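Dear Dr. H.,

I hope your travels went smoothly. While you were away I took the liberty of generating a structure for the chain from your last submission, since the lab meeting agenda had it listed for discussion. I wanted you to have the full record in hand beforehand rather than looking at slides cold. The sequence, exactly as received, is reproduced here:
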Amino acid sequence: MSNLNPLGTLTSIDAVAACCGDDCCSDGSVVEISHTQLETITAAVKHQYGALAESAAERAADPTRRKATDRYYSADQRQVLPDEAAGASGGCGNPVGIADAKPGETVLDLGSGGGIDCFLAAKEVGDEGFVIGIDMTPRMIELAQKNAANLGTENVVFKLGHIESIPQPDNTVDLVISNCVIALSEQKDRVFSEIQRILKPGGRFVISDMVTEAPLPDEVRASAAEWVSCVGGAAVMSEYLELIEEAGFTGTEVLKQERSRPDAVDWQTTLINLTLRAYKPA
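The corresponding predicted structure, in token form, is as follows:
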């Protein structure tokens, strides 16, 4: 993995900042982030997604804005989601749609945002199951809790926390899901180690994420806009799979792989939306 410090030289965020598949994180409506606000990439991400939570209702009501749920989720799935949950949606796939969550299981969603995947998983695990959403942005947690109350969902809880240090005991989760969130982390090895820790023996994860075929240009990794848009921190796919293996997972299977920006002509041609599954040994 590259040791390049993405905060070495930061370029500003502009109105046409890209996103995972051009529509998953912010559909181009990226707020300006100044250098003084950017102590870390984490601060930049929290700033951006806090703003996304605040504008969720506005985005949901605007028919010209194509949301991640519009691209990756079925009409039946979208029908059961609160408008504000869809308005805050961000992702590059639909992991819960192919995760095969079973009745009675405990599911944990990394980077749960407004709660869309949590609410869909809650229906699959039923009243005997349990869903936990983890997000580091207080405004997203507040939005998700509001959405849960509106839905009357009683088997979902949202926790404030970081995916590099998940607030969950060891060996307590059957299934971990995540949608274009690990790409935002500077410590992906720690994320996979944490997933391994909290999964029960024989448990699995199903995640969608942004990866690349080749290393990104330095100027992309140094761009605040590209980092908060899931791109600047995207790992080379081969290195990403190595991290999963090094964390102790087995049976890794690529479930879906597609070009994120199929019409691109430069480094963006290397971007891949990847959905995969792997297991913690029994």
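Two observations you may find useful: The mean pLDDT is 81. The beta strands are 106-110, 130-135, 156-160, 173-179, 199-212, 235-236, 250-259, 271-279.

With kind regards,
E. W.
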